[in-house]
Amino acid sequence: MIQRVQSLYLLAALAADAGFYFVGQTESNVALGQWSMASINQTIQLVLMVLIVWSIFKFKQRLHQFVLNRLSIILNFVLVGVFAYQSLNLPGEASVSQKGIGVVLPIISIVFLVLANKAIKRDEDLVKSVDRLR
Q1: What does the H/E/C string look like for 72-105?
Q2: Would you give the distance in Å from CA 39 to the centre of its chain?
Q3: What is the pLDDT of residue 4?
Q4: CA-based nearest residue to 109, from 82, 134, 74
Q5: pLDDT tens by residue, 35-52
Q6: What's the distance, CA 22 to chain centroid?
Q7: How far apart are the C-alpha atoms of 42 and 27, rounded to whole Å?
Q8: pTM of this prediction?
Q9: What DSSP character marks residue 35?
Q10: Strand partners of residue 36
Q11: pLDDT of 36
Q12: Closest listed residue to residue 112, CA positions, set 11, 22, 18, 24
């Protein structure tokens, strides 16, 4: 249900991750085997976006939605770590868009995912309290 507050938080987190996917990508010369750092970032971001969309449609199963959001938070932290590693290994001078602005969007996504989890927990507590009255 889109009118629930956690769904709106999840849509905002999806928008932040999609914005980072479409805006903040730079190619790097650092390679790990056959995977470059840019392709690792894009893969993590695609997985994140799929998890968030899946979580939006799991509105009837609040506990599964809660777990998917926690997994998304962990993957966002991994993405921030990979991005920090990539930005620390950029040679020479880098522009602001390469080093500073891109790391803000996954952090915004983490904040919205935490807010969504709080709203899901509040809904779950409300349902449990109503079940006690029956």
Answers
A1: HHHHHHHHHHHHHHHHHCCCCCCCHHHHCCCCHH
A2: 17
A3: 83
A4: 74
A5: 666 677 788 889 999 999
A6: 14
A7: 11
A8: 0.81
A9: E
A10: 31
A11: 66
A12: 11
Residues β-bridged to residue 35 = 32
- Which residues are within 8 A (CB) of 26 and not within 5 positions of it... i.e. 6 or more apart? 38, 97, 98, 102
Contact 51, 75 (CB under 8 A): yes
Domain borders along the chain are: 5-133
Q: Each residue's pLDDT tens digit in the chain (134 positions)?
A: 667 898 999 999 999 988 888 775 544 444 455 566 667 778 888 999 999 999 999 888 989 999 999 999 999 999 888 877 777 776 666 554 555 566 788 899 999 999 999 999 999 998 888 887 76
The radius of gyration of the chain's CA atoms, rounded to the nearest angstrom, is 17
Cα(12)–Cα(67) distance, rounded to whole angstroms? 18
Q: What is the pLDDT of residue 51?
A: 94
Closest CA to 126 of 5, 10, 14: 5
What span, in angstroms and rounded, lies between the C-alpha atoms of 119 and 47? 23
Q: Name which of 52, 58, 25 is nearest 109 in CA terms.
A: 52
Q: What is the C-alpha to C-alpha distance for residues 9 and 125, in angstroms, rounded to an integer?
A: 19
Domain 5-133 is of which CATH architecture?
Answer: Up-down Bundle (1.20)
